[in-house]
Amino acid sequence: MESRLVYMDHGATTPVRKEVFDYMAPFLQERYGNPSSLHTPGREVRQAVEEAREKTADALGANSDELYITAGGTESNNIALRGLAKKRGKPGHIITSSIEHHAVLDVCKDLEKEGHRVTYLSVDRYGRVDPAAVQDALEEDTFIISIMAANNEIGTLQPVREIGALARGKGVYFHTDAVQVVGQLPVDVNELNVDLLSLSAHKLNGPKGVGALYMRKGVKIDPLYRGGSQERKLRPGTENVPGIIGQGKAIELAVSEIPEKKKRLEHLRDRLIKGLINIGEVSLNGHPEERLPGNVNVSFKYIEGESVLLSLDMEGIAASSGSACSSGSLEPSHVLSAIGLDHSTAHGSVRFSLGYGNNEEDIDYVLEKTPPIVERLRSMSPTYRSR
Amino acid sequence: MYSEKVMDHFTNPRNVGELANADAVGETGSFKCGDTMKLYLKVKDERIEDIRFQTFGCGAAIASSSMLTEMVKGKTIDEAARVTNQDVADELGGLPPMKLHCSNLAADALQNAIADYKSKQRSV
Question: Residue B91: which residues within 8 A CB-CB, separation 6 or more?
Answer without folding.
Answer: B5, B67, B71
